[in-house]
Fold this sequence. Notes:
Blueprint: H1 3-27, H2 37-63, H3 66-71, H4 74-97, H5 104-112, H6 118-129, H7 138-165, H8 170-173, H9 177-193, H10 204-211, H11 219-232, H12 234-240, H13 248-258, H14 261-273, H15 284-311, H16 319-327, H17 336-344, H18 348-377
Amino acid sequence: MGLQDLFIAASVPVLKVLLVTAVGSFLATDRIDILGEDARKHLNNVVYFVFNPALVCTNLSRTITFKSVVSLWFMPLNILLTVVIGSALGRAIIQITKTPSHLRGLILGCCAAGNLGTMLLIIVPAICQEKGSPFGAPDVCRTYGLAYTSLSMAVCSSFKFLQVAHSTVKKIGAICLWSYVYNIIRISLSESTAEVENGFGTTSQGYIAKLLPENSTPEEFVGNIVGFVIGVIPQIRRTLIGENAPLRVIQDSATLLSDGAIPSLTLIMGGNLMKGIHGSEIQVSLIAGIIVVRYIVLPLSGIVIVKGAVHFGLVHSDPLYQFILLLQFAVPPALNIGTITQLFGAGESECSIILLWSYALASVSLTLWSTFFMWLVS
């Protein structure tokens, strides 16, 4: 397959994402105000509690078996490596640019936490549908691509649930967005304002501590575990999956709900990025550093890690699986970092600018890296 065909196969899905994202941004403008802050919040709740669990559950249950779970063991390690390498590079940026203390957690978070959910859910199925895709039949590619992507989402949300369930596994949960990035931003803000009195008559550190949730809901984890149970236990799988399954209507209904996840997520992403247009000033060197880390250094590191794992027999030979492992190193920062900064009320405008530039340049970066990754694994 020629490089031009691969480039077209990689660029068309990214253009689709840009178009739908632009619609979300347009609907979120003050003049239109259909997808305003409250609307995005309510839609996000529907996605979080309904669409995402249905998407993860249906795709895992159709494709994941006990044998495949064992063969895909490298993915959690791959995600952990993206966080570890990103954190180390983020620390280097902080040292080089002398980042203000209240923004250090934000910079670390943007370098360490990639968009392993929304972006992969959008890009991978779209690539599978392109004629120049090297991953075989579109339907088969889409099914397994969504399964691998759902597994990527399940890894982090499962670790998050484990952290809530028992304090002895906090180090495991620390690789996830809401337990790792949340806490480094909290610590960064606490350290920078520990001596400052706020309007409530207490230290900012103490005030920030009051914002910390003691519990989080495991709804997303429920979708993961249900999908694993259905896929791994043959008796349940035969009851729900397949044309002759007696309870296939349940699976079909869940699939119908899951179809709303990708367009909804893309619209929300476009609406959230509108905040960056009205953001405050931030050091250009910080934005440039994050761009270099996420779109140059991390993808190159991913190539070394994944190809090394393939060479030593740690990763099976499925090109689509290898492609998704590589793509996990090339995605832009997680959008939920903006939610975290909004919660603390500090660094929100700076975060919006970082995300705006990151996602604007992601259209070019993802196209080029996706083209190269497809060539590399095909």
